C-alpha cells in the first residue's frame, strides 16, 4: 500500500511522519548496503543513506520548534513490511534495487505531497524541498540501474539465440543404428 505520509492535517504530525519515513529509509539502506554486491551501487547507496541521515537532522529541530516531541525511530510496521526485514530475505542486486525503488517511491510521494501544502512557513518549505530533491535523485539513480538490468537482459537474450541451423537432410540425419 502506498504511504499515507504527506496527508496529515497537523504540521508537526506531518513532519514527524516524514521523520519516521527517513528513519525507515536509513534502516532499509543499511540492509541493502550489507547485501548488495556491485561496488558502484554500494557506494551510491552509502551516499543516499547519508542524505537520509541529513533529512533526519533537518526535520528533528522543526518538530521541536512546533512544540512536539520528534519521533526517534522507524515505524515498526514499515520495517516489517518494507524495511530491513524484507531486505534481509532478498537475493541478488536487482531484487535489492527493486525493494529500494519501492522505498523511494514512498519517500518521493510523501515529500511531493508535503511541499505542496499552503500552510508551510518558508524555512520549513525550504527544508522539505531540499529533501524532496534528494529523494528524486535517489529514485532516478535506482530506476536507471534497474533499466541497465533490463537492457542487459534483452542483450543477453539476443546473443543467446542460437544461430540458424541448416535444415536436417537425409545425409546429416543421425543414424538410427
Ligand atoms: Fe530522506
Ligand atoms: Fe531517498
Describe the structure.
There is one protein chain. With 177 residues, the protein is an all-alpha fold. The protein has one domain (11-154): Ferritin, core subunit, four-helix bundle (Ferritin, Up-down Bundle). Helix content is 70%, strand content 0%. The protein has helices at 11-35, 39-65, 76-81, 84-88, 93-115, 122-159. Helix 1 runs antiparallel to helix 2, helix 1 (11-35) runs antiparallel to helix 5 (93-115) and helix 2 (39-65) runs antiparallel to helix 6. The mean pLDDT is 87. Bound molecules: fe (ii) ion (2 copies). One fe (ii) ion binds next to helix 1, helix 2 and helix 6.
Topology:
Blueprint: H1 11-35, H2 39-65, H3 76-81, H4 84-88, H5 93-115, H6 122-159
Helix pairs in contact: 1-2, 1-5, 2-6, 5-6
CATH topology: Ferritin
Task: State the oligomer.
Answer: single chain
Indicate the structural class.
Answer: mainly alpha
Global morphology: elongated
Secondary-structure element string = HHHHHH
Small molecules in complex: fe (ii) ion
> How many helical stretches?
6
Please provide the count of β strands. 0
Q: Roughly what is the average pLDDT, rounded to an integer?
A: 87
User: Which value, in Å, is the CA radius of gyration?
Assistant: 23 Å
Query: What is the CATH architecture descriptor?
Result: Up-down Bundle
Instruction: Report the biggest beta sheet as strand number plus sense, adding barrel if it closes.
Output: none
Classify the beta-strand content into a percent band.
under 5%
- How far apart are the termini? 63 Å
Number of domains: 1
Helix content: over 70%
- For CATH, the homologous superfamily is named as Ferritin, core subunit, four-helix bundle
Amino acid at each position: 500500500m502506498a504511504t499515507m505520509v504527506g496527508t496529515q492535517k497537523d504540521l508537526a504530525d506531518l513532519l514527524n511522519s516524514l521523520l519516521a519515513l527517513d528513519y525507515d529509509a536509513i534502516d532499509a539502506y543499511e540492509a541493502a548496503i550489507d547485501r548488495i554486491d556491485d561496488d558502484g551501487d554500494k557506494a551510491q547507496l552509502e551516499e543516499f543513506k547519508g542524505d537520509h541521515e541529513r533529512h533526519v537532522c533537518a526535520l528533528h529541530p522543526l518538530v521541536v520548534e512546533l512544540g512536539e516531541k520528534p519521533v526517534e525511530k522507524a515505524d515498526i510496521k514499515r520495517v516489517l513490511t518494507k524495511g530491513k526485514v524484507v531486505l534481509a530475505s532478498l537475493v541478488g542486486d536487482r531484487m535489492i534495487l527493486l525493494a529500494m525503488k519501492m522505498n523511494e517511491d514512498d519517500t518521493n510521494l510523501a515529500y511531493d505531497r508535503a511541499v505542496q501544502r499552503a500552510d508551510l512557513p518558508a524555512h520549513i518549505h525550504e527544508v522539505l524541498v531540499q529533501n524532496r530533491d534528494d529523494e528524486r535523485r535517489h529514485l532516478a539513480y535506482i530506476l536507471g540501474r534497474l533499466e541497465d538490468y533490463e537492457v542487459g537482459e534483452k542483450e543477453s537474450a539476443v546473443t543467446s539465440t542460437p544461430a540458424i541451423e541448416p535444415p536436417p537432410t537425409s545425409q546429416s540425419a543421425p543414424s538410427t543404428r
